[in-house]
Amino acid sequence: MQNQSFDLHEMFQYMLLELRAAWRYRWHALIVAWCVMIVGAVLIFSIPNKYEANALVYADTDGLTNPLLKGVAVQPDVHQRLQIITHTLLSRPNLETVADKTGLSARATTPADKDELLVKLGTAVHINDAGTNNIYTLSYADPDRQMAQKVVQAFLQILMNDTLGANSASADTAQNFLQQQVQDYSEKLNEAENNLANFQKANVGFIPNQGGSNYFMRLQAAETQLQTLQDQYHTAVTGRATTQQQMHAMASGPASSGIDPRTQEIDKQISSYQQQLSTLLLSYTDQYPDVISAKRMIAQLQNRREALKNNAAGTSAMGVISDNPVYQEMQKSLYTTQVQIQTLATQIDLQKKQIADLKGQAGRITNVQATLQRLTRNYDTTKQQYDQLLERLNTAQLSQDATQSGNNLKFRVVNPPDAPLLPVSQNRGLLLLIVFALAVAIGGGFAYFLHKIKPVFMSLSGLRQSSDYPVLGAVSLIVSRARHASLRREMIGFFAAAGLLPLLLLLGFAFNGSLTRLVQHFFVMGPV
């Protein structure tokens, strides 16, 4: 804390010594300050005044946001429409019209000056939100109060008349453009449809998707079908061989040795009834109905067996086998399998031919597929554009009808153009304060600069620090009475001259208008 206090004390002492050193050049600083103050004041009072003219305009947007037209006509963005109108209002033709109508163009003597004047005019006109809903201010500032009012009136007239007419003309132009585009795309769509139909007609059988797929899918499906037919063919051939083996085994079985299977079957039935009869006789007499019935069945079966034996002598073994129902079913199955094998062989040949044809026509099919895709893509794109343009045309026609029925942006003048008698700029009081501060700062800086280029020692410590020579002491200056009086007069003159600077500032505040007219008259008319 002590070190900090010590450092602040040394810094304060150093600043005092520097101020005392710079005080030697106080008259130089005062002269520089006066020059800066005079030049700055002359420049400030030579800046022309600007009078701002304003007009309040109300934008009627009720027609634009009519809920009854929602989904039928285009609902424009109000702020976007206002921005468009603002840019249209400040277009170069409108700027030239305003400049010629108000006489503002007379300020320009060359084409370059006129271009510069129009650029400044476009940047000086402002359309801003007035803080109330749909109320806007149209403002322009100019050194001539009446000129500012004329310019605002001219722009207001363009806004009320020409802009609304331009909106209607713009809508007509857009609708005509859409109609022309719809007609062009209709012709393109018809041409694309004809090209696609003619191409499909000329390449029947080679068009992808006619068989439900493209070329590669058709080839893959044909090869898959061929494999399926071959599997079915091999299965049928295997089944035929199995059936033939079974029939051969049956032909070489008991029936082929002269034993009739039918006789064997009857013998089995007779044996069964005899066992049944034996069982019944254990419990009943010969007169029991079931016993009688069993004896009768045995007698009938024995008669049938004898008849079969009598017929067996004139019948071959193969005939006996052919009468077998199982053998007959196997024969039918064999015939069916044989027909199936022949049919599958024919289908396999046809399928192989189809695959060979597809592979042979691969080049043409792929070219047809690529061309068809291109034609279809062209047709789809053209149709999509045509549908979109037709929809926009219908919407534009509905929107224009709605606009003609009152659905449009309208402006109403709330306050006509008016320019106050007092200028809005420049703020000469603030500028004078800035110039006064700059004058004092520049004068003081100049005195300190002179001290730095012509330094002197203001204390013994400074003299000791500047060299290695010992300093024995200091001799005080004894000032005479005449010198005291001269210094007193000098100080009075300095403070009097320095006091005139703020006085000049106060005079500038008090006689702002008079000094402005005097200085501007001097610069325009020259000294009298």
UniProtKB/TrEMBL annotation:
Subcellular compartments: Cell membrane
Residues annotated as transmembrane: 27-47, 430-450, 491-511
First-listed, main subcellular location of the protein, grouped into a coarse class: membrane
Keyword Coiled coil applies: yes
The Polysaccharide chain length determinant N-terminal domain, residue ranges: 20-101
UniProt domain Tyrosine-protein kinase G-rich: residue ranges: 369-448
Mode of membrane association: Multi-pass membrane protein
Keywords from the named record: Cell membrane, Coiled coil, Membrane, Transmembrane, Transmembrane helix
Pfam family, one: Wzz
Coiled-coil parts of chain: 175-202, 291-399
PANTHER family membership: FERRIC ENTEROBACTIN TRANSPORT PROTEIN FEPE, TYROSINE-PROTEIN KINASE
Name of the molecule in the record: XrtA system polysaccharide chain length determinant
Organism: Rhodanobacter terrae
